Amino acid sequence: MSQTDSSMDQLFNLLKEAQRQLDAGFSNLPPTSSIVLGDDAAAILQEVATRLHDNYPYAHPLYAGQMLKPPHPIARLAYALTMSVNPNNHALDGGRASSTMELEAVAELAKMFGLSSYLGHLSSSGTFANLEALWVSGQTLPGRGIAASDQAHYTHTRISSVLRLPFAEISSDSTGRMDMTALRQALETSDIGTVVATLGTTAVGAVDPLPQILELQKKYHFRIHVDAAYGGYFTLAGNLDDDARAAFDLIPHVDSIVVDPHKHGLQPYGCGAVLFRDPAVGRFYKHDSPFTYFTSNELHLGEISLECSRAGASAVALWATQQLLPYNRDGEFARGISLGREAALEFNRRIAADSRFLAPNTSPQLDIVFYAMRSPGQTPDASSALARRVFDEAAKRNLHLALATLPLRFFPPDTFPGYRTGSVTCLRSVMMKPEHRAWMDQIWQRLDHAVEDARKS
Ligand SMILES: Cc1ncc(COP(=O)(O)O)c(C=O)c1O
Q: The whole model's pTM is what?
């Protein structure tokens, strides 16, 4: 994670050269006085750097905890360069080049999912993109409910409440996927207009069974929204299991899709995306605000998005990253996604073969691994307490894991004798950096020592 002087020199030299090229485009303007930064600015920046020590080392492979992945250096550079223009992708007047780049970047996302016609744009986050998709659902089918599994992202309940649409929680099965019997029952008894299929749940990376949901759609006629904020880029992976592959391959048949380039797409935060299969949904966005400054007949992104101001720099960073690492199934970007999954499978194999751990019912569907700790007495409480101690001991060795409280039904029935319902605090790792595969032995060694010390304490 710490950068060598030569890699920093390379980064900032590239930025300087690109900044010169950018400035040359405006050299016909009379010069203005530029802001000179003095000692105060240097001192403030030093303080900023020092205060930023108070973070986990997210970019390092020994950070194997939450869903956090560093942006690619080209994304960092492109974003930083664009900041000197600070375009606003709401309207072409505020960001001409970056709006065009957004359209091109979104076209790559659509191509990745196999969509031939679509309407789509970037957004500030997965939450906002989901809000927009469900807003369109509500506009299309007013008053009809939203159904999502109990493992769907927590914001779907909130979003439904903001949109004043009834929300139905569908239970998940023993692998964390939406339970089809429960969904069928809900469709029989409630007026459900949209089913949210999560392709990659936040907690355990489960992939909802889209093929069966599409089958149910034939009888019950609902919209399908795919929340692939975390999982979307796995459509490029070469090593998915058959169920996950089948679900990702059917994405072109759903009504809307959300994917977050700021998760697996190597982007800085502030980069989500929503895509609609039917471009005609653009009609819902019409507005005639006297303040907007649409001055041409060309498409302004503000005409097809709920948000007004949006960072043009996000679009530029994504575009630049796609130029360097195109979304080909046999390309370097796709290999990075597959490597993370390989790391998760290898980590899970080691967990399952070691009696100090309690492995769940299934191996990872994407790149999230979770497990409970075997503890004296085999109760969920004792196991949870031990997991927390392992978490602390691992951190002392610079291995940063995450904790997640998960239902006991995700584990085989005899895992906690006498306990069938309730939950247990587990250890969880999102293996989302390609380097995690090469660092597996280091990760395992540190975990091994952390477990030994936690069991003694
Ligand atoms: C499946 C899923 N949906 C939605 C979100 C929310 O996305 P964001 O954090 O970009 O708002 C997340 C975040 O982890 C997620 O995993």
A: 0.96
